[in-house]
């Protein structure tokens, strides 16, 4: 897949700030993305832990999340791509990132790529756990979560008494 024209647009009500970034911009412009994000007016006014930034996106936003994690590996502490379609051959650099990948097995577009991505990441040393059933009650959900953490996966769940 070749991305021809994709932009990130961070729109904030605060002071009508708008920041745009184009993946098709010059390499000098692309190199400034991390600094541009960290210097937004929102970051200047509020105490933001620059080492605790997280990325997420659904569908095309999930692809954007993966692209930014690969291009800027130190920018985000963890990421949550949802139903993104990404080339599994490109994800090896993410094997040691904290990712929570969400996708439905019924998603004919995203499931094949995300499932293959998880296989690649596992082969590269990532700890992966696959589980979920949308019909589970809380106890049914927490049992496989407990098993995955016993096998080395890190997680937090609420309520925390389970």
Automatic annotation (TrEMBL):
Signal peptide: none
Biased composition regions of type Polar residues, renumbered to the chain: 147-162
Biological processes annotated in GO: proteolysis
Transmembrane segments: none
Spans annotated as Disordered: 142-162
InterPro entries linked to this entry: AB_hydrolase_fold, Plant_Biomass_Hydrol_Est
Keywords: Plasmid, Signal
Keyword Signal set for record: yes
GO MF annotations, alphabetized: serine-type peptidase activity
Name used for this protein in its record: Peptidase-like protein
Source organism: Rhizobium leguminosarum bv. trifolii (strain WSM1325)
Species lineage: Bacteria, Pseudomonadati, Pseudomonadota, Alphaproteobacteria, Hyphomicrobiales
């Amino acid at each position: 897949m070749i991305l021809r024209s994709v932009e990130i647009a961070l729109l904030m009500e605060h002071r009508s700030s708008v920041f745009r970034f184009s993946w098709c911009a010059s390499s000098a412009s692309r190199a400034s993305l991390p600094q541009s994000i960290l210097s937004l007016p929102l970051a200047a006014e509020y105490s933001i832990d620059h080492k605790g930034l997280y990325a997420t996106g659904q569908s095309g936003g999930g692809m954007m999340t993966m692209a930014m994690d690969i291009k800027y590996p130190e920018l985000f502490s963890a990421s949550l791509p949802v139903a993104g379609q990404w080339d599994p051959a490109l994800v090896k650099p993410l094997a040691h990132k904290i990712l929570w990948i969400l996708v439905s097995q019924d998603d004919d577009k995203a499931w094949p790529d995300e499932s293959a991505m998880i296989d690649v990441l596992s082969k590269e040393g990532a700890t992966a756990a696959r589980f979920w059933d949308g019909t589970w009650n809380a106890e049914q959900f927490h049992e496989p979560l407990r098993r995955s953490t016993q096998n080395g996966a890190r997680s937090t769940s609420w309520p925390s008494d389970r």
